[in-house]
Amino acid sequence: MVGPAPRQKDHVAARDFQVSIPAILLTVFLSIAGMELFAWWAHKYIMHGWGWGWHRDHHEPHDNVLEKNDLYAVTFGTIVFAMFAVGYVWSDLLWWIAFGITCYGLIYTFVHDGLVHQRYFRWVPKKGYAKRLVQAHKLHHATIGKEGGVSFGFVLARDPAKLKAELKRQKEAGIATVRESAGA
């Protein structure tokens, strides 16, 4: 044999229990659901708060292939990569949480970057939930600047009529500046 024998994951002293298939499925599902909640919070309070410097160009017209906003994907991807590495060595459960977060990232990339912003493909849905997702995110982009706004999540979308009413309320209260084309 050439070189050292492959390292056996199971021989690491700090390892926790093996995870059952139902626990894996539940962990992945809860990680995906939890990421939608985290994404809503991070989008509203980080990206539209102290992290606006990275997020601003996402809300402005441009012809660039990449945006500063993509640095969020790099940052969160690095964290998840570390979770995979630590999970591989010490915790099956952490590895599956990282897998669930990665699944959410793929869903986000398809829905937000692909469907809504058409960075990868061109398809405009005419009906159903896909149309609702696009409408909700377009209403999110109806505000000028980081103040106010609606629809900070990425996969769960409220009724566009309710979002328009909320934008109108924010505009009248002076909370948000709304683009005229938004109809609010």
TrEMBL record:
Q: Where is the Fatty acid hydroxylase domain?
A: 29-154
A GO molecular function term, named singly, is: beta-carotene 3-hydroxylase activity
Record key words, sorted: Carotenoid biosynthesis, Membrane, Oxidoreductase, Transmembrane, Transmembrane helix
Instruction: Tell me the Gene Ontology biological-process terms attached to this UniProt entry.
Output: carotene metabolic process; xanthophyll biosynthetic process
Q: Which InterPro entries match?
A: BETA-OHASE-like, Fatty_acid_hydroxylase
Query: Which residue spans traverse the membrane?
Result: 20-42, 71-90, 96-116
Name the protein family: Belongs to the sterol desaturase family.
Give the protein's recorded name: Beta-carotene 3-hydroxylase
Q: Which organism is it from?
A: Qipengyuania nanhaisediminis
From the broadest rank down, the organism's phylogenetic lineage runs: Bacteria, Pseudomonadati, Pseudomonadota, Alphaproteobacteria, Sphingomonadales
